[in-house]
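Hi X.,

You mentioned you wanted examples for the new student's onboarding notes, showing what a folding record looks like when two proteins sit in one file. Here is a clean example. The first protein comes first, with its sequence line followed by its structure tokens.
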Amino acid sequence: MACGRCVLRSKAGYFSSLSALSVGTCGYGSMTLGLSGGYVAAASSALLRDGVACGACFQVRCRNTRICRGGGVKVILTDLNESNDTDLVLSRPAFVAMARHTAAGELEKLGTVDVEYKRIPCEHTKNLSIKVEEKSQRPNLLAIKFLYQGGQTDIVAVDVAQAGSSDWRFMSRVYGPVWSTSRAPPGPLQLRMVVTGGYGGKWVYAQSEALPVDWGTGSVFDLGVQITDIARGVAAKDCK
């Protein structure tokens, strides 16, 4: 995270099938293809950081200036790339979008290209939301998945309490955007999160009733907040 804004160099390939991304490590499932217009990517373990970076946004630019546009593409991380050959594997739509107007076919034939990439703030039109995972069982077993996390941030702690109560109970990260507890109080429920942009952190409180009394599995709830924090700048010497 100290190099949150650093420009890094590596190679990137692409998935020939979008369906491969729907079973990604981050667990977004069928929602994956709706994120960022299908411009998503699998990242190396160093970038994904045990899932902490699931949902993070990156700008990726092809370094072949003859066939690629200068601006590159913006992608959201949704999966783990287990290959040692590339840091990123993009969805096919994202990969070919790096090409100049008449060179998409040529870029696609290359399969793998040299790229520059950096983490950038995510911008979502929707508020931070949660989806209640299927393994949840009211009233005490609660597992939630965060969606539409904005800014250039990590969620590093989550607490739950009955609405109006100060008896906060911590939740544990299962993997990536999924957090759970077996000690959830009866609903309605309120949530708070510690969000960090790379240095320190701050509490972010969801609306007073994040989950209703009758919350159920598969439901998605709008938390009524948007996160816009970004990582603080770093010196060039810290970018490696």
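Then the second protein repeats the pattern, sequence line and then tokens:
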Amino acid sequence: MQASADSTKMECLWSNWKGQAIDLLYWRDIKQTGIMFGSVLLLLFSLTQFSVVSVIAYLALAALSATISFRIYKSVLQAVQKTDEGHPFKSYLEMEMSLSQEQIQKYTDCLQSYVNSTVKELRRLFLVQDLVDSLKFAVLMWLLTYVGALFNGLTLLIMAVVSMFTLPVVYDKYQAQIDQYLGLVRTHINTVVAKIQAKIPGAKRKAE
């Protein structure tokens, strides 16, 4: 019963995170998405100009400047108005932020599941369990060598973030046209793969 309850909680947590991510990527709340998108881009562009240590230090200094200034402002305001409202960040200081052992175990189990599935898939590809899939993987790696020669990892990360916040909206708006072209591309790829499977000995998939 306990395992079933933990599984239900994990599914609810994942569903909640998934819903929030979808709302962000589809710009359901323009203000919230704009703040998130702008903050991530600003951070990534900062990393292109400064080291990670410098960016972290500048962000910490900016946050400290804001909190210290607000703390002093509230203290002066309370002294002038002769009120005793207490520490301006009292509610945040008293907020529980520690992770329980149960939560840590859930996140660890989830991470372990992803790692295990990734290792199994890589083993399958590198040890050529399916020749066609391994060839596809080899072609992908070959293409990535050209991508790596043109862009560094940070540039690719910036492009990925921009794509994450723009492509879902574009797809939602032009879904019919995009699905039509994707269907044509998928059909062409399947035809080419079928021809390769027919010509390469041992490339045909075993019947299920």
